[in-house]
Amino acid sequence: MADKIVYSSEYGDLRQSPEKEKASSHRESKKPGLPRDGIVRVRRENNGRGGKTVTVIYGLPLSEEKMYLFAAKVKRRFGTGGTVRDGAVIVQGDRVDDALRLVAEDGFTVKKAGG
Asked: Does position 115 have pLDDT exceeding 90, yes or no?
């Protein structure tokens, strides 16, 4: 009898029928995305970050390379750390007002999001 792998920690149950595979791949492709309406949004977040506050800038109409350059500019200007993740620039600390001014200076339409 030939050995056949039926479960993988990476892919899950490998015994699925083709209908189930289509349904699961369809479900994965419907991820909620960031709005792409030409407005850059800036918000403050602290959920899921151990109580630490961060400023998130999302909706920038930039390529991935330019997004990293923009993040570097923001981090230098604010003197803080940050990263680019899932198409958003995340900067440590509550710098929403400063980020609004910086994004507006670069010629983008900007809006404060959240409360």
From this structure: no
